[in-house]
Specification:
The chain has about 400 residues and is mainly α. The chain has one domain: Na+/H+ antiporter like fold (Up-down Bundle). Helix content is about 75%, strand content about 0%. It contains 19 helices and no strands. α5 packs parallel to α13 and α17 runs antiparallel to α19.
């Protein structure tokens, strides 16, 4: 077969296998299609299919095909991260800043501390910390991976639960928005390269200046032109961030943060988000799965994944309950908010990919983080749905935001 034919065969696997599992097994209640695609990416990777059919795996996912898939995946994830940045509504967050900062701070800070404690434990054993990581980078990176809230996946899950446009849904979006900003800020700190600090400072100054020019330009353009200019801005920011020694996805997120939803229209952005998930992100999930490894033994990876899951979920729930006591929430509200905020999904996987690229974590730690992201996301709907039904019966969800 030619490289093109093998590439198309790989693409066929990427789209057919998850869809059949999702439809035939009817997993939508606990595992939306995106989660099934992530799981199938792991299954199609070297740890499962690669171990059972090594020759076939090497034939289909040969270096030329993997390079092509990675190119498609990088473009898809850049668009996805940019859209996540655009979705941030910092104006509403500022309006309710006391409640938002208190909740976001506790729901981010406690799982961060728990994740850092887990990282300190892992540092006592070889094979978990990356070759280029300082102790503080590994600790903070692992801790922040446990603290991540995946805003785009959270939107999908709240749509499924039919609370996205309700007051509680809007409150949760504000908390998650602040967490998202903190996550990318901490990532920039972790990736700070003192040998390239001049470049990184130049990038930040240049970005701030060009943002003013970009926003004035976008305000004057027709909507049809804004889409094209937005893509140029995305590519330029991603390139500049990568050149500065950060990561192209940091640039993609910053590119989206300085854009306004009103420039494009919420319906158009929602449609693009769904199309990116449909057309491009399955390739990213597969390329992510190809990076999973179990060299330290399956049991060890699963144990570490469980440890990180406990740190992540436990930290979020304790943080939400503390916020509820401080802010006087109604009974049951903190549990719903805590479980929704612990959703990891795609942002955590993107975050872990960056840590792996920079050799802050190893492939084994990456695999454990991937398992934690899948587990936390799959737990959300089955646990929140009955809690939400009880809360709606008490009129909790219909209450206006404080």
């Amino acid at each position: 077969m030619s490289t093109t034919e093998i590439y198309l065969l790989a693409m066929l696997l990427i789209f057919v296998a998850p869809f059949l599992v999702w439809r035939l097994c009817k997993t939508d209640y606990f595992a939306p299609l995106a989660i099934v695609q992530i799981i199938m990416g792991i299954v199609l990777g070297p740890g499962v299919v690669g171990a059972i059919f090594p020759e076939y795996h090497k034939f289909v996912f040969n270096p030329d095909v993997v390079k092509t898939l990675n190119g498609v995946a990088q473009w898809g994830v850049m668009l996805f991260v940019m859209l996540a940045g655009i979705e941030l509504d910092l104006k509403a967050t500022w309006k309710y800043r006391r409640e938002s900062i208190t909740t976001a701070g506790l729901s981010l800070g406690l799982p961060l501390v728990c994740g850092c404690a887990a990282a300190v434990l892992l540092m006592q054993y070889p094979g978990w910390m990356g070759a280029k990581a300082a102790n503080w980078q590994f600790m903070l990176g692992t801790g922040m991976a446990c603290a991540v809230t995946a805003l785009p996946v959270l939107v999908l899950l709240m749509e499924k639960l039919d609370i996205l446009r309700q007051p509680m849904g809007q409150r949760i979006l504000r908390y998650a928005s602040l967490d998202d900003v903190a996550i990318w800020g901490v990532l920039a700190l972790i990736l700070l390269d003192w040998e390239r600090v001049g470049r990184q400072a130049s990038f930040l100054v240049g970005f701030a200046v060009l943002t003013i020019v970009f926003r004035r330009l976008m305000a004057r353009l027709q909507q049809s032109d804004r889409w094209y200019v937005a893509l140029i801005w995305l590519i330029a920011c991603a390139f500049a961030a990568d050149w500065a020694g950060l990561h192209f996805m940091v640039g993609a997120f910053l590119a989206g943060v300085v854009m306004d939803v009103e420039w494009f229209g919420q319906e158009n952005l929602d449609a693009l988000f769904k199309n990116v998930l449909l057309v491009l992100m399955p390739v990213f999930f597969l390329s992510t799965g190809l990076r999973t490894k179990w060299d330290l033994g399956g049991y060890a990876v699963f144990f570490v994944g469980g440890l990180l899951l406990l740190a992540s979920v436990g930290g979020k729930l304790v943080g939400a309950h503390l916020a509820g006591k401080l802010l006087g929430w109604k009974s049951g509200e903190a549990s719903i908010i805590g479980w929704l905020l612990q959703t990891k999904g795609l942002i955590e996987i993107i975050f872990a990919n960056i840590l792996l690229d920079k050799q802050i974590i190893t492939n084994e730690t990456f695999t454990a983080l991937l398992l934690m992201a899948v587990g936390s996301t799959m737990l959300t709907i089955p646990i929140v749905h009955p809690k939400l039904n009880r809360a709606q019966n008490r009129g909790l969800v219909s209450q206006a935001s404080s």
